[in-house]
């Protein structure tokens, strides 16, 4: 029969020492003493001794394991009964630690005797009657058998009883009671030490003992008898209070006034009863904790628990053996190591100390030698040791097979199957095993023998800390990164499958396939390009065409870089560039040697090896878009995320992170790729502080490679075109290839001069701008606010809208459209500012350069698109020259004049007047420099506030220096042309009136052409108002310089009346007082008057413009595009052809591409004639800038330009102004119009028509006469430009 044993741990040992209580019962005081003595004995012994003492008693017998299921159901009933008994007893400081079944022998010996015979299950035992106890020997004792029981007690029990008696006597003395019989309620005597059990109920506490049912507790134990399905449970010791408690009701009479000692005894009994209840509650909590611990133990990995136990027992021995084997192997003494391992293996006692890792050491040794026989013997030894091969064992076997070329694939397959049977995935070999030297390659070689397409997939997902204190930190930071790894794996697999399908397709041989373009790079590179595009995707989405074009261009650029490495060009380029950079870094610069010439000389000295000038072919636009569309399709189909990743309340399902949809733009249906809001939220929550840019959109940290031809220059590796063009247009490349190299030298050298200007960041100003950017921005200061400041998009319920009229619905719809448009614009501006400021902050401690190229008209631009000196006021303000120069005698004055120019306050004042004004506001200037955000904030009202503030800081630093003339200034000073387009027109026509209006003629004060046009328009308005014209009367007082400026500025560049009307309409809407109902009529009237005014003021200009327009119209009607050559020899062609539609049948959708640059199509006559005048003038102002750049270089100046705005140091402004005027005069001293006429005649009229009377001959004759008739010029003296102060100012 099994006995239920309670194993308790005293609190003071915190569960380290296990105490067993046999089937006995002792009073509380004796029990505490027994525990204390036992504790002292156990503390004095080593922990392992204490653990070993109870080891056998804690292990259940095998027969118990067979009956465990049945016993657990019975255990619950026993525990409930035991808890009720403990609640009713007086128990203090006894913990219920464990409950387990222990077999008892037939003679009744307790479980502490480990040698007792096993009891047969189901054997019936005698049940003791009431008043009887089970003695140590197992016999029953009743009232007449006390002597036998006493005789059978051991010395230990006698000592325990004596201690109990002593403690009981002391307790009675403390309570003030005598040890004498006490009468019960029925008059019978109760033995000393007898107590009444009290039962706690909801009604109160009642006395439960009577004379008939009283039980003697001294030296007795309560037992519970069970029949076939019951077990004996040992009772815990309780303290007995030797105090009689009279019943309130019964046959006996209760005393009216109890004695004081009885009242005190009752109180103590109640206190002990409360302690017993608390102890019972504590036992219940302990049992609940044990239940949780058992659950944790079940859920834990058993192999880990086993390994930990083995490590405790055999850790030192195994480490010693392992260290010895590793030392022998490292020394090369393989035989000694092998003998040592076999010696331990042959001894059974030592074999048990070995683990699989020790056998693997020798397996790796034999694997290195390629000995399959020894590997087989090691597997036999592992089996004899009762161990199981692990990943290291199979890894060594596969390595050995990989080194053995004669190994049969059947053997390798058998190993892989065995791994699968053992539950060991092959991929885990590469994630869990430690490889040395070429072991990984050998394992892969063996696997590839039977699985050629196998690729190891290592799980790179990082585990996140589970602590709730940092859960949000790691989740928000790593959520997007983890998803990117998941997407990366999915895209690699999808791309691999797609390549297999494309490779096996049976399409026609003449049909181009994407398969070769998908094999140019590694699969990882394609996937990186795709994932990187996500960070640049706005929340509102992007058109499929634009996104596909960006992806295709990135692939092409990376392919070109790989091609240069494949052609072994990189090493030679690096060597030549290092020498070129050393020449540029010399302090004594030779300005008579151009950078292009230096590079050409170095390349000639290193003529061996590959050519630096590659012959790469730019991919057609259709190929770029088709490749990009294929990649976008993979992203849409295979980039998915769980729907509950941000909100666990949602149902979990995989949803795409990108959606392909359609929208309408200009009444055309356009394919759109839009990110899911979950992706947008994840990107915002990640708060990723890193922006990823392609190298060719960033400023260079080294001087650009000089342009030596139209195909080579700028970046070291990234392919760059010298002349930008419409996507797919190649007319410009054909023209440039036909040019002689010498004809392009001036153009190339000017680009090199602009690109060699070194820059750095104005850090104090950048910090101020970033602080405002992070603090919700400022629209007044051109710092875009965040999206949180955007207007809320109106939301309307369908039920509410049902009551609205059609006009109200239309109004609500417009409000929604306008709000969405505003939000989209704010997001675009915010991201643009973020890009600029992020790049500037990244470059804050660097010196950098902007490589330059040009458009098809010859206008130069920096190659980096986001951050350059052609940008906004914010971007220009944070850029200063890396090279500083002293201000010199007049440098400080030029800084002050430049400051006034930036404010826009004294545009019609002379230079002396501007300087005087600057001196009068020095307090405001210094206050702005010292307290830009908390002072008077004078600088914030300027036209260019940030450049104004930067200039204030530079002036403050200069005036506070010991000697301003020696102050080293890095600040660029600007000289801007006065309506530069009209200046070129006036110089071409030698128009005196026009030249005077645009400051080609010296004047005391600058002439403002915009004010002159506004004054002329006002005269026309007064005349019409007197005639009674209503709109002229409404416009009284509203015609100003600002209203007409933009139109006057752009008329020279080909703006039409329609475009001019829109410009004026926008200006009128900005005037609050102007009646909005007259905006359309007023703008229509004003644009007509502006054009009339310009025709009167610039008669020569209008004649030249008309001649250019008509010439282009006739040329395009003849079937040719307009071409010309600039005075510097740069060929230019207008790539405007009639558009055609080309259908791209992509998987994701059919793309209808509008091709406007196909040279096989007829020219677009409207575009050709409207674009020729402005494009021709742009080519002239570009030529003037290039000439100025070349001669400034020879004079030792730092020079950069923003089209018709030239920059240099303050000390060299005078020199630059002189060069600028001289080169303008030199340019227009050439017979530009006559040379243009001759070129056009030679190009388009060289062939004589055969049929004289045909329609084509008449058109040809008309074109011939027109091209030959150059407009007449005036008598303006160009030399006077050199004396004009305000030509550029």
UniProtKB/TrEMBL annotation:
Organism ancestry: Eukaryota, Metazoa, Chordata, Craniata, Vertebrata
Stretches with biased composition (Basic and acidic residues): 144-165, 254-272
Family: Belongs to the phage and mitochondrial RNA polymerase family.
Protein role: DNA-dependent RNA polymerase catalyzes the transcription of mitochondrial DNA into RNA using the four ribonucleoside triphosphates as substrates. Component of the mitochondrial transcription initiation complex, composed at least of TFB2M, TFAM and POLRMT that is required for basal transcription of mitochondrial DNA. In this complex, TFAM recruits POLRMT to a specific promoter whereas TFB2M induces structural changes in POLRMT to enable promoter opening and trapping of the DNA non-template strand. Has DNA primase activity. DNA-dependent RNA polymerase catalyzes the transcription of DNA into RNA using the four ribonucleoside triphosphates as substrates.
Compartment annotation: Mitochondrion
PPR repeats: 355-389
Single biological process term from Gene Ontology: mitochondrial transcription
Listed Low complexity bias regions: 107-116
Residue ranges of the region described as Disordered: 107-172, 247-272
Keywords for this protein: DNA-directed RNA polymerase, Mitochondrion, Nucleotidyltransferase, Transcription, Transferase, Transit peptide
SUPFAM superfamilies: DNA/RNA polymerases (SSF56672)
Organism domain of life: Eukaryota
Protein name: DNA-directed RNA polymerase
GO cellular component: mitochondrial DNA-directed RNA polymerase complex
DNA-directed RNA polymerase N-terminal domain location: 436-756
Keyword Mitochondrion included in the entry's annotation: yes
UniProt cross-references to Pfam families, sorted A to Z: RNA_pol, RPOL_N
Oligomer and partners: Homodimer. Component of the mitochondrial transcription initiation complex, composed at least of TFB2M, TFAM and POLRMT. In this complex TFAM recruits POLRMT to the promoter whereas TFB2M induces structural changes in POLRMT to enable promoter opening and trapping of the DNA non-template strand. Upon metabolic stress, forms a complex composed of FOXO3, SIRT3 and mitochondrial RNA polymerase POLRMT; the complex is recruited to mtDNA in a SIRT3-dependent manner. Also forms a complex composed of FOXO3, SIRT3, TFAM and POLRMT.
């Amino acid at each position: 029969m099994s006995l239920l044993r309670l194993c308790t741990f005293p609190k003071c040992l915190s569960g380290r020492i296990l105490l067993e209580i046999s089937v006995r019962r002792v009073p509380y005081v004796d029990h505490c003493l027994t525990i204390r003595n036992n504790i002292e004995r156990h503390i004095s012994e080593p922990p392992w001794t204490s653990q070993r003492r109870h080891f056998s008693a804690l292990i259940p017998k095998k027969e118990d394991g067979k009956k465990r299921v049945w016993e657990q159901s019975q255990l619950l009933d026993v525990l409930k009964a035991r808890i009720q008994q403990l609640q009713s007893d007086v128990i203090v400081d006894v913990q219920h630690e464990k409950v387990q079944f222990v077999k008892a022998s037939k003679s009744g010996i307790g479980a502490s005797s480990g040698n007792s015979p096993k009891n047969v299950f189901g054997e019936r035992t005698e049940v003791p009657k009431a008043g009887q106890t089970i003695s140590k020997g197992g016999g029953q004792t009743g009232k007449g058998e006390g002597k036998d029981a006493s005789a059978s007690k051991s010395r230990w029990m006698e000592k325990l009883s004596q201690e109990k008696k002593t403690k009981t006597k002391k307790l009675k003395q403390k309570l003030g009671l005598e040890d004498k019989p006490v009468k019960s309620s029925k008059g019978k005597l109760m033995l000393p030490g007898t107590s009444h059990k009290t039962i706690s109920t909801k009604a109160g506490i009642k006395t439960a003992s009577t004379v008939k049912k009283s039980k003697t507790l001294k030296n007795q134990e309560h037992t519970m008898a069970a029949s076939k399905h019951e077990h004996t449970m040992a009772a815990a010791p309780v303290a007995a209070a030797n105090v009689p408690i009279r019943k309130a009701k019964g046959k006996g009479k209760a005393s009216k006034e109890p004695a004081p000692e009885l009242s005190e005894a009752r109180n103590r009994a109640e206190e002990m009863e409360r302690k017993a209840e608390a102890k019972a509650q504590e036992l219940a909590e302990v049992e609940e904790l044990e239940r949780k611990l058992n659950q944790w133990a079940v859920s834990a990995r058993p192999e880990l628990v086993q390994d930990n136990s083995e490590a405790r027992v055999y850790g030192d021995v195994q480490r010693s053996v392992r260290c010895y084997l590793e030392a022998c192997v490292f020394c090369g003494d393989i035989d000694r190591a092998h003998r040592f391992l076999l010696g331990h293996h042959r001894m059974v006692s030592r074999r048990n100390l070995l683990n699989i890792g020790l056998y693997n050491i020798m397996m790796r040794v034999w694997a290195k030698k390629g000995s399959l026989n020894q590997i087989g013997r090691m597997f036999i030894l592992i089996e004899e040791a009762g161990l199981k091969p692990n990943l290291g064992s199979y890894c060594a076997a596969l390595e050995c097979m990989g080194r053995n070329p004669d190994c049969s694939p059947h053997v390798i397959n058998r190993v892989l199957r065995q791994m699968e049977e053992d539950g060991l995935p092959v991929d885990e070999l590469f994630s869990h095993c430690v490889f040395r030297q070429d072991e990984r390659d050998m394992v892969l070689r063996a696997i590839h023998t039977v699985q050629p397409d196998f690729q190891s997939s290592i799980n790179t997902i990082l585990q996140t800390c589970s602590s709730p204190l940092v859960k949000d930190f790691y989740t928000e930071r790593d959520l997007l990164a983890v998803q990117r790894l998941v997407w990366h794996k999915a895209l690699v697999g999808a791309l691999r499958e797609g390549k297999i399908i494309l490779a096996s397709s049976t399409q026609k041989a003449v049909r181009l396939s994407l398969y070769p373009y998908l094999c140019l790079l590694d699969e990882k590179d394609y996937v990186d390009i795709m994932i990187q595009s996500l960070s640049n995707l706005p929340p509102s989405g992007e058109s499929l065409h634009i996104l596909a074009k960006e992806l295709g261009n990135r692939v092409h650029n990376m392919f070109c870089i790989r091609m240069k490495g494949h052609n072994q060009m990189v090493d030679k380029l690096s060597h030549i560039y290092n020498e070129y950079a050393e020449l540029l870094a010399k302090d004594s610069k030779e300005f008579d040697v151009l950078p292009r010439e230096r590079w050409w000389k170095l390349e000639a000295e290193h003529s061996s090896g590959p050519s630096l000038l590659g012959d790469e072919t730019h991919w057609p636009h259709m190929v770029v878009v088709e490749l990009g569309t294929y990649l976008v399709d993979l992203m849409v189909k295979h980039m998915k995320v769980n729907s509950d990743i941000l909100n666990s309340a949602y149902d979990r399902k995989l949803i795409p992170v990108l959606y392909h949809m359609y929208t309408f733009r200009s009444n055309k249906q356009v394919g759109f790729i839009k990110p899911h809001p979950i992706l947008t939220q994840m990107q915002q929550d990640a708060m990723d502080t890193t922006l990823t840019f392609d190298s060719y959109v960033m400023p260079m940290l080294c001087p650009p490679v000089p342009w030596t031809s139209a195909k080579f220059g700028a970046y070291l590796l990234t392919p760059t075109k010298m002349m930008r063009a419409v996507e797919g247009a190649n007319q410009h490349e054909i023209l440039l290839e036909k040019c002689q190299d010498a004809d392009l030298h001036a153009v190339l050298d000017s680009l090199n001069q602009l690109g060699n200007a070194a820059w750095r960041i104005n850090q104090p100003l950048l910090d101020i701008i970033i602080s405002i950017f992070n603090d919700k921005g400022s629209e007044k200061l051109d710092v875009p606010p965040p999206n949180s400041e955007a207007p809320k998009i109106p939301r309307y319920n369908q039920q509410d809208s049902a009551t609205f009229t059609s006009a109200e619905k239309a109004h609500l719809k417009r409000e929604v459209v306008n709000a969405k448009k505003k939000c989209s614009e704010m997001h675009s501006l915010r991201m643009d500012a973020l890009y600029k400021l992020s790049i500037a902050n990244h470059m804050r401690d660097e010196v950098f350069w902007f490589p330059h190229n040009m458009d098809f008209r010859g206008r130069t631009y920096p190659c980096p698109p986001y951050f350059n000196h052609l940008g906004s006021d914010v971007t220009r303000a944070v850029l200063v020259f890396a090279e500083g120069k002293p201000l010199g005698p007049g440098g400080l004055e030029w800084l002050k004049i430049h400051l006034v120019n930036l404010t826009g306050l004294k545009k019609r004042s002379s230079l002396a007047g501007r300087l005087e004004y600057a001196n009068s506001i020095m307090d405001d200037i210094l206050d702005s420099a010292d307290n830009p955000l908390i002072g008077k904030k004078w600088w914030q009202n300027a036209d260019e506030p940030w450049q104004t503030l930067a200039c204030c800081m530079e002036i403050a630093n200069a005036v506070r220096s010991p000697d301003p003339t020696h102050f080293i200034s890095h600040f660029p000073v600007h000289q801007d042309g006065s309506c530069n387009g009209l200046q070129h027109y006036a110089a071409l026509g030698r128009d005196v009136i026009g030249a005077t209006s645009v400051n080609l003629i010296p004047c005391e004060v600058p002439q403002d052409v915009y004010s002159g046009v506004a004054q002329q328009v006002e005269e026309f308005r007064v005349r019409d108002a007197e005639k009674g014209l209503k709109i002229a009367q409404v416009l009284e007082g509203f015609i100003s310089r600002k209203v007409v400026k933009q139109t006057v500025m752009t008329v020279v560049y080909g703006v039409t009346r329609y475009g001019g009307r829109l410009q004026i309409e926008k200006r009128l809407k900005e005037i609050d007082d102007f009646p909005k109902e007259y905006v359309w009529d007023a703008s229509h009237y004003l644009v007509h008057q502006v054009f009339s005014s310009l025709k009167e003021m610039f008669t020569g200009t209008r004649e030249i413009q008309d001649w250019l327009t008509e010439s282009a119209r006739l040329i395009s009607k003849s079937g040719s595009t307009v071409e010309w050559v600039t005075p510097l020899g740069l060929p230019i062609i207008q790539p405007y052809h009639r558009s055609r539609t080309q259908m791209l049948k992509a998987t994701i959708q059919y793309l209808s591409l509008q091709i406007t640059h196909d040279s096989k199509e007829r020219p677009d006559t409207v575009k050709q004639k409207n674009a020729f005048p402005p494009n021709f003038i742009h080519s002239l102002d570009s030529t003037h800038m290039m000439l100025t750049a070349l001669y400034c270089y020879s004079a030792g100046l730092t020079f950069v330009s923003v089209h018709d705005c030239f920059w240099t140091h303050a000390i060299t402004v005078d020199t630059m102004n002189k060069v600028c005027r001289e080169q303008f005069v030199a340019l227009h001293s050439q017979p530009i119009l006559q040379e243009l006429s001759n070129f056009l005649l030679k190009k388009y009229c060289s062939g004589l028509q055969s049929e004289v009377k045909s329609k084509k001959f008449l058109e040809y004759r008309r074109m011939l006469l027109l091209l030959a008739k150059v407009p007449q010029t005036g008598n303006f003296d160009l030399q006077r430009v050199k004396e004009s102060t305000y030509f550029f100012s």
